[in-house]
Write a structure and sequence with these properties.
It is built from 14 helices and no strands. By secondary structure, it is mainly α. It has 2 domains: 12-167, Tetracycline Repressor, domain 2; 168-305. It is flat. The model has no long low-confidence stretch (mean pLDDT 91).
Length: 305
Amino acid sequence: MESVQTLSSPSEWRDYYALTKPRVMSLVVFTGLCGLLAAPGHINPVLGFTAVLCIALGAGGAGALNQWWEADLDARMKRTAKRPLPLGRMPRANARDFGVALSVASVLIMDVAVNTISAVILAISILYYAIVYTIWLKPRTPQNIVIGGGAGAFPPLIGWIAVTGHITWMPVLLFAIIFMWTPPHFWALALFVQSDYAKAGVPMMPVVKGQAVTRRQILAYAVVLFLVSLAPWWAGGTGAIYGIAALVLSGLFVALCLPVAVRRAGEGDRMKPEKRLFGYSVLYLFALFTALVADRLILGPGLVA
Protein backbone atom coordinates (compact mmCIF):
# COMPACT_ATOMS: atom_id res chain seq x y z
CA MET A 1 0.00 0.00 0.00
CA GLU A 2 1.24 3.44 -0.90
CA SER A 3 1.81 5.63 2.13
CA VAL A 4 1.38 9.34 2.55
CA GLN A 5 4.30 11.69 2.30
CA THR A 6 6.47 12.36 5.31
CA LEU A 7 5.80 15.48 7.31
CA SER A 8 7.02 18.38 5.18
CA SER A 9 6.00 21.42 7.20
CA PRO A 10 4.09 22.27 10.36
CA SER A 11 0.34 22.09 9.95
CA GLU A 12 -1.67 25.29 10.29
CA TRP A 13 -5.30 26.21 10.71
CA ARG A 14 -5.93 25.94 6.96
CA ASP A 15 -4.95 22.28 7.05
CA TYR A 16 -7.40 21.56 9.86
CA TYR A 17 -10.07 23.51 8.00
CA ALA A 18 -9.40 21.42 4.88
CA LEU A 19 -9.92 18.26 6.94
CA THR A 20 -13.54 19.28 7.50
CA LYS A 21 -14.27 19.12 3.75
CA PRO A 22 -15.67 22.68 3.62
CA ARG A 23 -17.40 22.26 0.24
CA VAL A 24 -19.31 19.25 1.47
CA MET A 25 -19.94 20.95 4.80
CA SER A 26 -21.51 23.98 3.11
CA LEU A 27 -24.21 21.79 1.57
CA VAL A 28 -24.72 19.90 4.83
CA VAL A 29 -25.07 23.13 6.81
CA PHE A 30 -27.42 24.62 4.22
CA THR A 31 -29.82 21.66 4.17
CA GLY A 32 -29.69 21.45 7.96
CA LEU A 33 -30.56 25.14 8.22
CA CYS A 34 -33.39 24.70 5.72
CA GLY A 35 -34.81 21.84 7.75
CA LEU A 36 -34.73 24.06 10.81
CA LEU A 37 -36.37 27.02 9.07
CA ALA A 38 -39.04 24.92 7.36
CA ALA A 39 -40.11 23.10 10.51
CA PRO A 40 -43.39 24.14 12.18
CA GLY A 41 -42.99 26.01 15.42
CA HIS A 42 -40.25 28.32 16.59
CA ILE A 43 -36.83 28.00 18.17
CA ASN A 44 -34.81 30.59 20.04
CA PRO A 45 -32.36 32.12 17.53
CA VAL A 46 -29.41 31.33 19.80
CA LEU A 47 -30.48 27.69 20.07
CA GLY A 48 -31.14 27.58 16.34
CA PHE A 49 -27.63 28.87 15.65
CA THR A 50 -26.25 26.32 18.10
CA ALA A 51 -28.08 23.49 16.34
CA VAL A 52 -26.70 24.50 12.93
CA LEU A 53 -23.23 24.92 14.45
CA CYS A 54 -23.42 21.41 15.86
CA ILE A 55 -24.43 20.04 12.45
CA ALA A 56 -21.39 21.82 10.97
CA LEU A 57 -19.05 20.51 13.69
CA GLY A 58 -20.39 16.99 13.28
CA ALA A 59 -19.97 17.10 9.51
CA GLY A 60 -16.46 18.49 9.90
CA GLY A 61 -15.55 15.82 12.42
CA ALA A 62 -16.84 13.06 10.15
CA GLY A 63 -14.90 14.56 7.24
CA ALA A 64 -11.69 14.60 9.26
CA LEU A 65 -12.17 10.97 10.32
CA ASN A 66 -12.82 10.05 6.68
CA GLN A 67 -9.53 11.66 5.61
CA TRP A 68 -7.65 10.06 8.51
CA TRP A 69 -8.80 6.59 7.47
CA GLU A 70 -8.34 7.17 3.72
CA ALA A 71 -5.01 9.02 3.80
CA ASP A 72 -3.22 6.34 1.74
CA LEU A 73 -6.15 6.08 -0.67
CA ASP A 74 -6.26 9.86 -1.11
CA ALA A 75 -2.54 9.85 -1.96
CA ARG A 76 -3.25 7.57 -4.94
CA MET A 77 -5.98 9.73 -6.44
CA LYS A 78 -5.31 12.89 -8.41
CA ARG A 79 -8.52 14.49 -7.13
CA THR A 80 -7.52 14.11 -3.47
CA ALA A 81 -3.71 14.00 -3.54
CA LYS A 82 -3.37 17.61 -2.40
CA ARG A 83 -5.26 17.14 0.84
CA PRO A 84 -3.25 17.82 4.04
CA LEU A 85 -2.48 14.19 4.93
CA PRO A 86 -1.28 13.02 1.49
CA LEU A 87 0.95 16.11 1.37
CA GLY A 88 2.38 15.22 4.77
CA ARG A 89 1.34 18.50 6.38
CA MET A 90 0.32 16.86 9.67
CA PRO A 91 0.57 13.48 11.44
CA ARG A 92 -2.37 11.20 10.76
CA ALA A 93 -3.06 10.97 14.49
CA ASN A 94 -3.74 14.70 14.56
CA ALA A 95 -6.51 14.30 11.97
CA ARG A 96 -8.01 11.41 13.94
CA ASP A 97 -7.96 13.32 17.24
CA PHE A 98 -9.34 16.45 15.57
CA GLY A 99 -12.18 14.45 14.04
CA VAL A 100 -13.05 12.72 17.31
CA ALA A 101 -12.98 16.03 19.22
CA LEU A 102 -15.30 17.79 16.77
CA SER A 103 -17.67 14.82 16.63
CA VAL A 104 -17.95 14.37 20.39
CA ALA A 105 -18.30 18.11 21.02
CA SER A 106 -21.05 18.46 18.42
CA VAL A 107 -23.15 15.67 19.93
CA LEU A 108 -22.67 16.79 23.54
CA ILE A 109 -23.51 20.42 22.79
CA MET A 110 -26.57 19.41 20.74
CA ASP A 111 -27.79 17.24 23.61
CA VAL A 112 -27.30 19.88 26.30
CA ALA A 113 -28.42 22.95 24.35
CA VAL A 114 -31.11 21.64 21.97
CA ASN A 115 -32.62 18.19 22.57
CA THR A 116 -31.56 14.59 22.95
CA ILE A 117 -33.30 13.23 19.84
CA SER A 118 -31.45 15.59 17.51
CA ALA A 119 -28.19 14.74 19.32
CA VAL A 120 -28.76 11.01 18.88
CA ILE A 121 -29.49 11.39 15.16
CA LEU A 122 -26.42 13.62 14.77
CA ALA A 123 -24.30 10.91 16.41
CA ILE A 124 -25.81 8.29 14.09
CA SER A 125 -25.01 10.44 11.04
CA ILE A 126 -21.37 10.84 12.10
CA LEU A 127 -20.92 7.12 12.76
CA TYR A 128 -22.73 6.28 9.52
CA TYR A 129 -20.30 8.35 7.46
CA ALA A 130 -17.12 7.60 9.36
CA ILE A 131 -17.67 3.87 9.88
CA VAL A 132 -20.50 2.43 7.77
CA TYR A 133 -19.60 4.33 4.59
CA THR A 134 -15.86 5.06 4.91
CA ILE A 135 -14.62 1.86 6.52
CA TRP A 136 -17.18 -0.72 5.46
CA LEU A 137 -19.02 0.22 2.26
CA LYS A 138 -16.65 2.33 0.17
CA PRO A 139 -13.84 -0.24 -0.27
CA ARG A 140 -16.17 -3.25 -0.63
CA THR A 141 -19.20 -2.63 -2.83
CA PRO A 142 -20.29 -0.58 -5.85
CA GLN A 143 -23.43 0.17 -3.84
CA ASN A 144 -21.29 2.28 -1.48
CA ILE A 145 -22.87 5.54 -2.63
CA VAL A 146 -26.41 4.15 -2.63
CA ILE A 147 -26.31 2.89 0.96
CA GLY A 148 -23.84 5.48 2.16
CA GLY A 149 -26.04 8.29 0.84
CA GLY A 150 -27.89 8.20 4.12
CA ALA A 151 -24.95 9.94 5.80
CA GLY A 152 -25.52 13.17 3.88
CA ALA A 153 -29.31 12.94 4.14
CA PHE A 154 -29.52 13.46 7.91
CA PRO A 155 -28.98 17.27 8.23
CA PRO A 156 -32.52 18.48 7.32
CA LEU A 157 -33.93 15.77 9.58
CA ILE A 158 -31.72 16.97 12.43
CA GLY A 159 -32.60 20.62 11.79
CA TRP A 160 -36.32 19.84 11.78
CA ILE A 161 -36.15 17.83 15.00
CA ALA A 162 -34.11 20.57 16.67
CA VAL A 163 -37.25 22.70 16.40
CA THR A 164 -40.04 20.16 16.94
CA GLY A 165 -38.35 17.63 19.21
CA HIS A 166 -39.92 14.67 17.39
CA ILE A 167 -39.84 12.78 14.08
CA THR A 168 -42.74 13.01 11.62
CA TRP A 169 -43.24 12.08 7.95
CA MET A 170 -42.18 15.45 6.59
CA PRO A 171 -38.52 15.41 7.73
CA VAL A 172 -38.31 11.75 6.68
CA LEU A 173 -39.35 12.82 3.17
CA LEU A 174 -36.60 15.46 3.20
CA PHE A 175 -34.17 12.72 4.17
CA ALA A 176 -35.45 10.59 1.29
CA ILE A 177 -34.94 13.40 -1.24
CA ILE A 178 -31.22 13.70 -0.46
CA PHE A 179 -30.90 9.91 -0.24
CA MET A 180 -32.25 9.51 -3.79
CA TRP A 181 -30.28 12.52 -5.05
CA THR A 182 -26.92 11.15 -3.92
CA PRO A 183 -26.40 8.28 -6.43
CA PRO A 184 -26.96 10.29 -9.64
CA HIS A 185 -24.94 13.17 -8.19
CA PHE A 186 -21.88 11.07 -7.30
CA TRP A 187 -22.09 8.67 -10.22
CA ALA A 188 -22.03 11.61 -12.62
CA LEU A 189 -18.74 12.59 -10.96
CA ALA A 190 -17.52 8.99 -10.99
CA LEU A 191 -18.02 8.75 -14.75
CA PHE A 192 -15.49 11.47 -15.55
CA VAL A 193 -13.00 10.49 -12.83
CA GLN A 194 -13.43 6.75 -13.37
CA SER A 195 -9.73 6.17 -14.08
CA ASP A 196 -8.84 7.80 -10.77
CA TYR A 197 -11.11 5.44 -8.83
CA ALA A 198 -9.87 2.44 -10.84
CA LYS A 199 -6.23 3.33 -10.13
CA ALA A 200 -6.96 3.63 -6.41
CA GLY A 201 -8.92 0.37 -6.34
CA VAL A 202 -12.21 1.94 -5.21
CA PRO A 203 -15.16 -0.20 -6.42
CA MET A 204 -17.30 2.63 -7.70
CA MET A 205 -20.19 1.66 -9.97
CA PRO A 206 -18.51 2.61 -13.31
CA VAL A 207 -15.38 0.67 -12.35
CA VAL A 208 -17.15 -2.51 -11.28
CA LYS A 209 -20.34 -2.60 -13.37
CA GLY A 210 -19.25 -0.48 -16.31
CA GLN A 211 -20.48 2.81 -17.74
CA ALA A 212 -23.61 1.45 -19.42
CA VAL A 213 -25.06 0.13 -16.15
CA THR A 214 -24.06 3.29 -14.29
CA ARG A 215 -25.74 5.52 -16.86
CA ARG A 216 -29.00 3.56 -16.71
CA GLN A 217 -29.01 3.68 -12.93
CA ILE A 218 -28.39 7.43 -12.94
CA LEU A 219 -31.58 7.88 -14.96
CA ALA A 220 -33.52 5.41 -12.81
CA TYR A 221 -32.62 7.21 -9.60
CA ALA A 222 -33.42 10.57 -11.18
CA VAL A 223 -36.94 9.35 -12.00
CA VAL A 224 -37.42 8.11 -8.43
CA LEU A 225 -36.06 11.44 -7.17
CA PHE A 226 -38.62 13.26 -9.32
CA LEU A 227 -41.44 11.38 -7.55
CA VAL A 228 -39.95 11.64 -4.06
CA SER A 229 -39.28 15.38 -4.41
CA LEU A 230 -42.98 15.94 -5.12
CA ALA A 231 -44.10 13.81 -2.16
CA PRO A 232 -43.99 16.67 0.42
CA TRP A 233 -46.40 18.64 -1.79
CA TRP A 234 -48.68 15.67 -2.48
CA ALA A 235 -48.75 14.82 1.24
CA GLY A 236 -49.79 18.36 2.16
CA GLY A 237 -46.55 19.24 3.89
CA THR A 238 -45.83 22.19 1.59
CA GLY A 239 -47.66 24.61 -0.63
CA ALA A 240 -47.56 25.48 -4.30
CA ILE A 241 -44.26 27.40 -4.14
CA TYR A 242 -42.35 24.28 -3.25
CA GLY A 243 -44.51 22.04 -5.41
CA ILE A 244 -43.99 24.00 -8.61
CA ALA A 245 -40.27 24.43 -7.89
CA ALA A 246 -39.89 20.69 -7.30
CA LEU A 247 -41.74 19.91 -10.50
CA VAL A 248 -39.55 22.20 -12.60
CA LEU A 249 -36.22 21.47 -10.91
CA SER A 250 -36.69 17.70 -10.78
CA GLY A 251 -38.02 17.63 -14.34
CA LEU A 252 -34.88 19.38 -15.52
CA PHE A 253 -32.79 16.93 -13.49
CA VAL A 254 -34.35 14.02 -15.37
CA ALA A 255 -33.91 15.85 -18.68
CA LEU A 256 -30.18 16.31 -18.01
CA CYS A 257 -29.87 12.63 -17.13
CA LEU A 258 -31.29 11.52 -20.48
CA PRO A 259 -28.20 12.35 -22.62
CA VAL A 260 -26.00 10.81 -19.92
CA ALA A 261 -28.06 7.61 -19.96
CA VAL A 262 -28.01 7.11 -23.73
CA ARG A 263 -24.43 8.18 -24.30
CA ARG A 264 -22.03 5.37 -25.11
CA ALA A 265 -18.61 5.03 -23.54
CA GLY A 266 -15.98 6.62 -25.74
CA GLU A 267 -18.30 9.12 -27.44
CA GLY A 268 -16.11 12.17 -27.05
CA ASP A 269 -13.59 12.63 -24.29
CA ARG A 270 -14.76 15.71 -22.44
CA MET A 271 -17.79 14.18 -20.71
CA LYS A 272 -19.79 17.40 -21.14
CA PRO A 273 -23.23 15.89 -20.34
CA GLU A 274 -21.85 14.23 -17.21
CA LYS A 275 -20.12 17.39 -16.00
CA ARG A 276 -23.25 19.42 -16.77
CA LEU A 277 -25.35 17.00 -14.74
CA PHE A 278 -22.91 17.02 -11.83
CA GLY A 279 -22.85 20.83 -11.72
CA TYR A 280 -26.63 21.07 -11.93
CA SER A 281 -27.10 18.42 -9.24
CA VAL A 282 -25.41 20.68 -6.69
CA LEU A 283 -27.46 23.69 -7.79
CA TYR A 284 -30.58 21.51 -7.71
CA LEU A 285 -30.35 20.74 -4.02
CA PHE A 286 -29.67 24.37 -3.07
CA ALA A 287 -32.61 25.58 -5.19
CA LEU A 288 -35.03 22.90 -3.99
CA PHE A 289 -34.38 23.53 -0.31
CA THR A 290 -34.49 27.28 -0.85
CA ALA A 291 -37.98 26.79 -2.33
CA LEU A 292 -38.90 24.71 0.73
CA VAL A 293 -37.97 27.55 3.09
CA ALA A 294 -39.65 30.19 0.90
CA ASP A 295 -42.81 28.11 0.89
CA ARG A 296 -42.77 27.88 4.69
CA LEU A 297 -42.06 31.58 5.25
CA ILE A 298 -44.62 32.84 2.72
CA LEU A 299 -47.42 30.27 2.94
CA GLY A 300 -46.89 28.93 6.43
CA PRO A 301 -46.58 25.30 7.63
CA GLY A 302 -48.34 22.59 5.66
CA LEU A 303 -50.90 20.13 6.90
CA VAL A 304 -48.24 17.47 7.56
CA ALA A 305 -45.91 18.59 10.31
